[in-house]
Amino acid sequence: MSGPNALPTENFEILLPRLITILELVQQSNAPQLGQHRLLISQATNELKEHLRKAKEVVDALPGGDMCIEDQDEVISMLEKMRDEKRTQLEHFSQLLDSNASISDREKMEIE
Question: Name one GO molecular function term (predicted).
Fold first, then answer.
C-alpha cells in the first residue's frame, strides 16, 4: 500500500539488524573481557529498546480509517479473496464429513 499515510518502514527495518547484533554478542564467548562484553550487550539492548520505542510511537500515531480509495479497494479485494478461500475450505470439509458419515452409516448397517 502506498499513499500519504504509508507506514514509514525505516523505523522498523532497523529492528532486525539490532536484534541480530544482540544475538551475535550473546553467542560470542569472550571470557577474559566479560565486563566489557556485558557492556556491549547492554548498549546493544538499550539501542534496540530505543528503536522499539520509536517504532511504537509511529504505530500509535497512525491515523485510523484514513486510507485512500485505492488502498481501501486493495484491502477489500484481499478480504473478499480470503472469504472465498475459507468458504471453499468449509465446503470441502463439509463434503468430507458427509462422506465419512455415510461410510460410517454403511458400516453400522453391515455390522447389524
Answer: transcription coregulator activity
